[in-house]
């Protein structure tokens, strides 16, 4: 091991290799970027993914997808509102496997993205009526993970004795 360290210490870059490249004139990406990881062991087919997700996501201005290897895909949305709607209506699945989605900045390296969490709507059932408040549901949701949104009882989508809270869960 010491020999390997000594050999590496002797290495250096030539003037040509050490030169810098000015990337300041590169253009910003217009729209929004999402990166996705498909939690399946099978290799995904990008054409099948796009054929399936386009009608589900109903993007008004459209989006494109690029296979980035290892079941990861980069989605470029023409309009950020379409991207935000996709994130808000998740989680999504493909072929019965969860898709992890993350916002992505155009100055970020793809290898820096960490897929360690996913947001889910969680139903909280059989609470006493006096406890069916945003504050109580937020406290219960905090025991699961980071609370992103609490659905007000008056705007409940379902019928029944429950409330919903959107929680970001650690999936590592």
Report on the structure:
The protein contains four helices and eight strands, in the order αβαββαβββαββ. The chain has helices spanning 2-9, 46-57, 80-88, 134-142; strands at 32-38, 63-69, 72-77, 92-94, 97-103, 117-125, 146-150, 162-170. The strands form two sheets. Strands 2-3-1-5-4 form a five-stranded antiparallel beta sheet. The radius of gyration is 22 Å and the shape is extended. The model has no long low-confidence stretch (mean pLDDT 85).
Which features would summarize this protein structure in a list?
172 residues, alpha+beta, 5-stranded antiparallel beta sheet, 3-stranded antiparallel beta sheet, 4 helices, 31% strand
Ends apart, CA distance between termini = 33 Å
Number of strands: 8
Give average pLDDT, whole number.
85
Specify the helix fraction band: 10-25%
């Amino acid at each position: 091991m010491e020999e390997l360290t000594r050999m590496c210490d002797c290495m250096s870059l030539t003037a040509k290799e050490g030169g810098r490249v000015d990337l300041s004139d590169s253009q910003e990406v217009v729209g929004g970027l999402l990166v996705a990881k498909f939690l399946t062991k099978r290799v995904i087919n990008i054409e099948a993914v796009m054929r399936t997700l386009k009608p589900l996501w109903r993007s008004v201005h459209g989006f494109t997808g690029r296979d980035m290897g290892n079941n990861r895909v980069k989605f470029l949305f023409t309009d950020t509102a379409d991207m935000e709607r996709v994130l808000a209506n998740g989680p999504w699945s493909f072929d019965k496997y969860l898709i992890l989605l993350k916002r992505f900045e155009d100055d970020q390296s793809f290898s820096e993205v960490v897929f360690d969490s996913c947001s889910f709507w969680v139903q909280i059932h059989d609470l006493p009526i006096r406890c069916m408040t945003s504050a109580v549901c937020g406290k219960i949701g905090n025991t699961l993970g980071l609370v992103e949104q609490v659905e007000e009882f008056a705007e409940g989508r379902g019928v029944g004795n429950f409330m919903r809270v959107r929680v970001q869960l650690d999936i590592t």
